[in-house]
Amino acid sequence: MKTTQVTSFFDHATNTVSYIVTDNKSRTCAIIDSVLDYDAASSQTSTQSADVLIEHIKENVLTLKWILETHVHADHLSAAPYLQEQLGGQVAIGQEITQVQGIFTDLLNLKDTCATDGSQFDLLLSEGDELALGDTLIQVLHTPGHTPACISYYVDGACFVGDTLFMPDYGTARCDFPGGDANTLYHSIQKILSLPDETLIFTCHDYKAENRDHYAWQSSVLEQKQSNLHINHKINEAEFTQMRSTKDATLNMPKLIWPAVQINMRAGKLPESETNGASYLKIPVSHTTK
User: Fold this and answer.
1) What share of the chain is helix, strand, coil (3-state, %, to 5)?
2) pLDDT tens, residue by residue, 44-95
């Protein structure tokens, strides 16, 4: 018998799904992959999406214990600091966040302004770690490939896989971000697909695949094994790696990658204010000639 309840919240602006996982007995909960609203044109943030999560938690008289990130997102900003300020809880991410911080502090020349030891987070997680949610355990799986720091959370027959997998009719995560690797992703997905067939798979995004008229984010291990477009029982590692690398070469970068990564690798916090009281983000500029 299930001891937890999963509530999903879809953000249309970023195609992101956030989750609240509630332990029914203790009435404690965890938030997975929250969203801070961000308007790129004005460079202003707001909290409408996060406030919906807060309203749900308050209305259901829950205690927030964990604010969990599956990875450093490149397509939306995390609302972790705001949620923690409002409701408490600890902010956690995979311990390989230090690799991501190292890569992007080099790319953005941020070594003097961004620590690369993961200290911005309350807890760094590794394969096999367990987090208590009442009497229920949240188990940590290290599932890199999209980024080095990707982790998935397995709890009570459900696995929250971040960007590792999408719905079967949409496929798998890109691997062309710095530190990504298609071979590594293949093996991470095999780890997820080794879970029992009935395990529910909850993805972090949905972009409404061709010929589907609705958004969706829940499947099962069996469905993924049988019908994922990119990785199923008929596709071997070499075929997957070739497909993924070829497809990635055609993709544009996410529109919010530079603000998102700079903020998310700091656990959702803005860079420190400068002498005029304002925070600033950096955008690298390059020039190519035909």
Assistant:
1) 25, 25, 50
2) 999 999 999 999 999 999 999 999 999 999 999 999 999 999 999 999 999 9
Domain extents in the chain: 4-264
Contacts 24+ apart (CB under 8 A), 232-236: none
* DSSP H/E element including 258: helix 257-264
Q: What are phi and psi of 58, to 5 degrees?
A: -70, -40
**Residue range 4-264, CATH number:** 3.60.15.10
What's the Cα-to-Cα distance from 193 to each of 49, 114, 146, 147, 270, rounded to whole Å? Answer: 31, 36, 16, 19, 37
Residue burial 214-225, b: 16+ Cβ < 10 Å; e: rest: eebbebbbebbb
pTM for the whole structure: 0.95
Between CA 38 and CA 47 the distance in angstroms is 9
Contacts of 91 (CB under 8 A, 6+ apart): 67, 68, 69, 80, 81, 84, 121, 122, 123, 267, 268
- Residues facing 132 on adjacent strands: 137
DSSP at 64:
E
Token pair, residue 179, equals 């530190």
Check: CB of residue 96 under 8 Å from CB of residue 144. yes
What is the residue type of 23?
D
What whole-number distance in Å separates Cα of residue 289 and Cα of residue 257? 23
Q: Tokens 């604010």 — which residue?
A: 67
pLDDT digits (tens, 9 = 90+) for 227-281: 999 998 889 999 999 999 999 999 999 999 999 999 999 999 999 999 999 999 9
User: What phi, psi does 183 have (nearest 5°)?
Assistant: -60, -40
